Amino acid sequence: MSSEIQLSLFNEESNFDQRELIPTDAKIPVPPGTYTNMNELAQHCNQCQRCELGSTRTHAVVGRGHLKAPIMVVGEAPGQNEDETGLPFVGRSGQLLDKILASVGLNTEHDVYIANINKCRPPNNRVPTPHEMAACLPYLLEQIRLVDPKIILLTGATSVKGLTGEKRAITKIRGQWIEWEGRLCMPIFHPSYLLRNPSKEQGSPKWLMWQDIQTVRAKYDEIRQSDGI
After folding, report:
1. Uracil-DNA glycosylase-like domain: which residues (predicted)?
2. Which residues pair with 187 in a beta bridge?
3. Which end of the chain is flanked by fewer CB atoms within 10 Å, N or C?
């Protein structure tokens, strides 16, 4: 696509359907404010061909939960269950995530919105490539803008790296608050990691997750109190 078309992509006087052009090439930007609501974004994700994953998906997996949630959970990429249903975290990992949230009185009806770095399932559930993450990141940034969460939980190292660029191992940074774009982010273990490490002994991943989610709940309560909610 020519640089002239790219420059005029969001010119209101343009004679072509601007948004139809956004997904066709990862080089075409998706500026902040492109979408007015999540349904609009979801329709675009299901048409998207910004990377090769668009050719192998069953459904784009955009998100689930409260559209103005104060807490947003960001995962890595859809698995088979998610690809089939079009919803994030609906398999065993998702069931565990819901239980973790519920353990401190949080749920997707009132407090939480769940999304992923990538909206399409990588073949064989492999880790998304840097190109795939970069091509899909603008959609996540638009989701964050639309939901406007106070707290973002980043599940696993890929999620942390995909949004913040932080490359340290999740074991080194989990449970620590990171400020990103004026928002509080906390890296936490991915639920699938907890499924592979079922011990609940002190110092185990599940034990550490319990500490982390209590810290998140305390910060949430602190924010609500300061906002007079």
Report:
1. 62-214
2. 154
3. C
User: For the chain, what is the radius of gyration of the CA atoms?
Assistant: 18
For residues 45, 120, 191, 214, the Cα torsion angle rounded to the nearest 10 degrees is -20
Helix axes of 130-147 and 38-45: crossing angle, nearest 10 degrees: 160
Coil, strand, or helix at residue 65?
strand
Distances in Å between the Cα of 16 and the Cα atoms of 10, 44, 220 are 10, 16, 44
Whole-number pLDDT of residue 75: 97
Position 129 scores a pLDDT of 96
DSSP 209-221: HHHHHHHHHHHHH
pLDDT in tens, 144-185: 999 999 999 999 999 999 999 999 999 999 999 999 999 999
